[in-house]
């Protein structure tokens, strides 16, 4: 198996861009990543294109990658369309890594592009809400309300789904359970949002670059108790691309490659409460393959679609014992200047969350951190990094989970 490296990265700014399309966004990210890798489209052996919701938002299905990349010089290459909910782009990267590691190609490109905004916001919410088991949607709705499987759904059960992403109901239910188990408070979740916005203020690609206070987070409108608006990731557009190649090829191009130590993808399970979920299973495999432990991580990008998820992920990744996520946050260990800096990009909460681009954007941030290119948000001496990117829900588990370990 070949040693695999990241040779080039780029991303657009994340935000709400009415004039943008998945094509214009993808073109910008691809141009930047290829230039960063000192390569051209002719060097690319295979492309993995990630998009999650174009079918619902614009109606474009089946050949999204070929359409988005039509004017990039990549047509004629094998283009694989990848859709795996919020883990779509990290799945595309996982496939690109596999193609290079196996020797099928020497250079592969993973690119994620998403146009999530729409003049009718309910269409965006509806698109996000499809990443659950629709055959068992009534069962999931009962669970989010803390109701038994046999209880009827109230008549108004559908009303709120058109006003917000149903995923926030799922996150809220998980959050309430976590509060009981850990003693976490809404103030703890507000502190996560404060940290994310402080980091994003230093990131020119972030959707929101204004610091916020705990008081502002708590005063923002309630989305799904106990989550307020500033505890939830926003709707936005954007693209990110990563050039993957053999380590030898990167060195021949005069680059200092970022080494891919582990790339793990698992699916969620209907596991019992005392059994490990997808984050624990994926991270355990990643640590084993990379030959490291959580204590070795300098910088992380984790899937904080809602603020409490960051605290839960601290524990699931083994950064701290169960129930200790709030204490780890309060210690300052996960802030810039701390031992394990989490989401220096601003995370999904503040950098933004254009679903099909998020996984690659996490890797852009981490590769830049390891190459010392992050300016005011640079993690000093960063040498080992981890990305955790999940998508969709099955019962109480994430449907698709990718964990990647990088190092220099």
From TrEMBL:
Domain Thiolase C-terminal, residue spans: 278-400
One GO molecular-function entry: lipid binding
GO biological process, one term: lipid transport
EC number(s) given by UniProt: 2.3.1.176
Keyword annotations of the record: Lipid transport, Lipid-binding, Transferase, Transport
Domain Thiolase N-terminal per the UniProt entry, residue ranges: 4-247
Tagged with keyword Metal-binding: no
Enzyme class, UniProt record, top EC level: transferase
Family annotation (CDD domains): SCP-x_thiolase (cd00829)
Name of the molecule in the record: propanoyl-CoA C-acyltransferase
Domain of life: Bacteria
Position of the signal peptide: none
Organism: Pseudonocardia asaccharolytica DSM 44247 = NBRC 16224
Cell membrane keyword on record: no
């Amino acid at each position: 198996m070949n040693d695999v490296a990241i040779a080039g990265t780029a991303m657009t700014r994340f935000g709400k861009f009415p004039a943008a399309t998945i094509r214009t966004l993808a073109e910008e990210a691809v141009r930047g990543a290829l230039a960063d890798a000192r390569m051209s489209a002719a060097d690319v052996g295979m492309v993995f294109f990630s998009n999650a919701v174009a079918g619902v938002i614009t109606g474009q299905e089946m050949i999204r990658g070929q359409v988005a990349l039509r004017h990039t010089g990549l047509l004629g290459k094998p283009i694989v369309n990848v859709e795996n909910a919020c883990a779509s782009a990290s799945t595309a990267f996982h496939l690109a890594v596999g193609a290079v590691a196996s020797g099928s190609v020497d250079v592969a490109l993973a690119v994620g592009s998403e146009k999530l905004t729409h003049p009718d916001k309910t269409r965006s919410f509806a698109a996000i809400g499809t990443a659950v088991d629709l055959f068992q949607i009534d069962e999931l709705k009962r669970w989010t309300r803390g109701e038994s499987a046999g209880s009827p759904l109230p008549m108004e059960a559908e009303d709120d789904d058109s006003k917000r992403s149903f995923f926030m109901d799922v996150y809220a239910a998980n959050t309430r359970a976590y509060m009981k188990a850990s003693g976490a408070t809404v103030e703890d979740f507000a502190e996560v949002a404060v940290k994310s916005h402080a980091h994003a203020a230093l990131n020119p690609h972030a959707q929101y670059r204004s610091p916020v206070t705990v008081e502002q987070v708590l005063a923002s409108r309630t989305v799904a108790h106990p989550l307020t608006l500033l505890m939830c990731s926003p709707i936005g557009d954007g693209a990110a691309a990563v050039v993957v190649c053999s380590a030898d090829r990167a060195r021949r191009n005069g680059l200092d490659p970022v080494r891919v130590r582990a790339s793990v993808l698992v699916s969620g399970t209907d596991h019992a409460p005392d059994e490990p979920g997808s984050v624990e299973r994926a991270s355990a495999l990643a640590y084993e393959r990379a030959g490291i432990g959580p204590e070795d991580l300098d910088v992380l990008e984790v899937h904080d679609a809602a603020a409490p998820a960051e605290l839960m992920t601290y524990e699931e990744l083994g950064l701290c014992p169960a129930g200790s996520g709030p204490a780890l946050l309060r210690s300052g260990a996960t802030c810039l200047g701390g031992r394990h800096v989490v989401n220096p990009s601003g995370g999904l909460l503040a950098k933004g969350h254009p679903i099909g681009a998020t996984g690659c954007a996490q890797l852009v941030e981490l590769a830049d951190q390891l190459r010392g290119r992050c300016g005011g948000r640079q993690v000093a001496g960063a040498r080992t990094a981890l990305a955790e990117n999940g998508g969709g829900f099955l019962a109480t588990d994430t449907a698709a989970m990718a964990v990647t370990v990088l190092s220099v």
